[in-house]
Automatic annotation (TrEMBL):
<feature type="transmembrane region" description="Helical">
    <location>
        <begin position="205"/>
        <end position="225"/>
    </location>
</feature>
<feature type="transmembrane region" description="Helical">
    <location>
        <begin position="169"/>
        <end position="198"/>
    </location>
</feature>
<feature type="transmembrane region" description="Helical">
    <location>
        <begin position="270"/>
        <end position="292"/>
    </location>
</feature>
<feature type="transmembrane region" description="Helical">
    <location>
        <begin position="443"/>
        <end position="463"/>
    </location>
</feature>
<keyword id="KW-0812">Transmembrane</keyword>
<feature type="transmembrane region" description="Helical">
    <location>
        <begin position="527"/>
        <end position="546"/>
    </location>
</feature>
<feature type="transmembrane region" description="Helical">
    <location>
        <begin position="409"/>
        <end position="431"/>
    </location>
</feature>
<feature type="transmembrane region" description="Helical">
    <location>
        <begin position="38"/>
        <end position="59"/>
    </location>
</feature>
<feature type="transmembrane region" description="Helical">
    <location>
        <begin position="365"/>
        <end position="388"/>
    </location>
</feature>
<feature type="transmembrane region" description="Helical">
    <location>
        <begin position="338"/>
        <end position="359"/>
    </location>
</feature>
<feature type="transmembrane region" description="Helical">
    <location>
        <begin position="475"/>
        <end position="496"/>
    </location>
</feature>
<keyword id="KW-1133">Transmembrane helix</keyword>
<feature type="transmembrane region" description="Helical">
    <location>
        <begin position="136"/>
        <end position="157"/>
    </location>
</feature>
<feature type="transmembrane region" description="Helical">
    <location>
        <begin position="502"/>
        <end position="520"/>
    </location>
</feature>
<keyword id="KW-0472">Membrane</keyword>
<feature type="transmembrane region" description="Helical">
    <location>
        <begin position="87"/>
        <end position="115"/>
    </location>
</feature>
<protein>
    <submittedName>
        <fullName>Uncharacterized protein</fullName>
    </submittedName>
</protein>
Length: 554
């Protein structure tokens, strides 16, 4: 008992003290902004409401009833053929959750655990290294898992439609939270392996390894969930093919299988899933205690380059706009911490399409388009935020006057816009070459992505100034929780209410967009959502960001 109490007093006390300090710090960073916080938060809330209301209507009227019919069919099939459609559907969604979280968490975990300025600060204090790891991972749990917020309502609606209700529904929600924690632990274990293999020396190699791991996760999931092998034209073989698919995607060695069994199984399956989760946590705890201290000590004591000469060269020199553009472009290309930010979305779409060509057919093209928008919008904001954070790190204070500051801001936004627009255009050409029937709409859509990316590039600088953590060593954690949440919401939903409706309005298909919003396809709604709202949102974000970044107020 005394030893247990001492362990709790030393480890857990330090953990909660640091978390409390971080929470107060984040609250001060938010409240000090005054009307800036109110303005940008209100815009994010409006976007959420505009997106959530029609989504809830769609789920209640179409999504849940369709899965209710699948549930009824599943019971009949299970009796006749042994095929459990419920398990196949829940496994499909669980695998998507796993791949999305692994892909979004891995760069955040590596950056937060091994390359954060806050880690360098904490190791100078009388705090155990394992406690530091727990604190850093707790931040990842709150910010790295933001992409799954869009998917959790869909997953819960699926469970409701499949007949999971009452106590089992709330138990499934608790198990889902545990599953998310398990994915974070698995990602952390992988991050230890990645840093160990790269030895923390070659950050470009580290970025390449992160890219390969995350792409492999998506490809692995897509190949396992490939329904194209089922030939519906031969009904005598459909049952056999579905049975084979069920055996593959529910194999016991897959990381989501214990979670799926705990939702659909009995008490023994729930206990087995909890033991599985405990085993993963114990493995991570072992790495935190015995491996993390040595790795972080080597990384933080390794000598780094100095920026003293750069600062001296920058003082008293009148930089031309072309020189600023060149500086920002070289920083973006050469900085290893930013390599992943544009390497990953560049390779994602071609590799995923090669892994699952069915995405280029009918409804799959919409899924692929959604992935393109989601990736490039969010990574544009992340890259812009990182560029502005690096400028703060370099201490280039000679360019803070309004006129010159405008040039530096436009330079960073232009570089990010050029790079991601080029990548988006090349990816779009690749998709069009595989699915030429969507040529006109795709080119129109890609054209209207340019002002969206430019707006998000300026928004990244605005968020870094208003919600920045000042942690320049951690590119993927440059914003507070509030800033990261606002960045994620605006980056995800801005293209939905600007690029998409404007492209549909131009090509004469705005009725489908208004139908999703449950609005009539007639004026003035056509003009309001197809023209007015997109241009007002672009102009408002660009104006507010430039005013804040160049003149220190909104």
């Amino acid at each position: 008992m005394p030893s247990l109490f001492l362990w709790q007093n030393i480890v857990m006390r330090d953990f909660f003290i640091i978390v409390k300090w971080r929470s107060k710090e984040a609250a001060r960073l938010v409240t000090r902004q005054g009307r800036k916080t109110i303005l940008i938060s209100s815009l994010a809330i409006i976007f959420l409401i505009m997106f959530s209301v029609p989504l809830i209507f769609y789920m209640r009227e179409y999504f849940i009833p369709n899965f209710s019919r699948i549930a009824g069919l599943s019971d009949q099939l299970r009796e006749l053929t042994g095929i459990d459609l419920k398990m196949i559907v829940i496994t499909f969604f669980s695998a998507i959750i796993f791949s999305i979280l692994l892909g979004s968490d891995l760069p955040v975990v590596i950056s937060n655990l091994f390359f954060s300025d806050r880690v360098k600060l904490l190791i100078q204090m009388p705090v155990k290294k394992s406690t530091i790891a727990k604190v850093q991972l707790s931040e990842v749990l709150t910010t790295g898992g933001l992409p799954i917020l869009l998917f959790v309502p869909v997953f819960l609606a699926t469970l409701s439609g499949l007949g999971v209700s009452g106590f089992r529904f709330w138990l499934a929600l608790v198990l889902l939270i545990i599953f998310v924690v398990d994915i974070l632990c698995i990602t952390s274990v992988i991050s230890f392996a990645v840093v160990f293999l790269s030895r923390g020396r070659f950050l470009k190699v580290l970025s390449s390894i992160m890219t390969m791991v995350t792409l492999f996760a998506f490809i692995f999931t897509l190949r396992f969930m490939d329904f194209s092998a089922i030939d519906l034209a031969r009904p005598d073989h459909v049952a056999e093919q579905f049975g084979t698919l069920q055996g593959v995607i529910t194999a016991p060695y897959l990381p989501w299988t214990p979670f799926v069994n705990s939702i659909l199984g009995k008490t023994d399956d729930v206990v087995l899933f909890l033991l599985y989760s405990l085993a993963i946590i114990m493995i991570l705890e072992f790495l935190e205690i015995f491996l993390y201290p040595g790795v972080i000590q080597k990384l933080t004591t390794r000598p780094t380059g100095s920026i003293k000469n750069f600062r001296k060269e920058g003082r008293g020199r009148s930089h031309s706009f072309s020189g600023i553009l060149k500086k920002d472009f070289l920083l973006l290309i050469r900085e290893p911490k930013l390599t992943f930010a544009f390497l990953y979305p560049s390779l994602f779409v071609p590799v995923v399409v090669m892994a699952n060509p069915t995405l280029l057919r009918s409804f799959g093209i919409l899924q692929l388009l959604g992935l393109i928008v989601f990736l490039f919008s969010n990574y544009s904001t992340v890259t812009s935020t990182a560029l502005f954070a690096f400028e703060r790190q370099l201490g280039d204070n000679g360019l803070l006057f309004p006129v010159k500051r405008l040039g530096t801001v436009i330079s960073k936004a232009s570089i990010v816009t050029f790079l991601y627009s080029l990548i988006v255009f090349l990816v779009g050409l690749y998709v069009v070459s595989k699915a030429s029937v969507y040529r006109d709409f795709m080119f129109t859509f890609l054209l209207f992505m340019l002002p969206t990316i430019f707006s998000l590039s300026l928004l990244g600088g605005y968020l870094e100034k208003s919600f920045g953590t000042r942690d320049t060593g951690n590119v993927f954690k440059a914003l507070t929780l509030a800033g990261a949440l606002i960045s994620f919401v605006l980056s995800t939903l801005l293209p939905v209410f600007t690029t998409l409706p404007l492209a549909m309005y131009t090509t004469g298909s705005i009725a489908a967009f208004l139908g999703f919003l449950n609005l009539p396809a007639a004026n003035p709604w056509n003009w309001i959502f197809g023209m007015a709202i997109p241009f007002l949102l672009w102009a408002g974000i660009i104006w507010a960001s430039l005013k804040s970044l160049c003149y220190n107020f909104v």
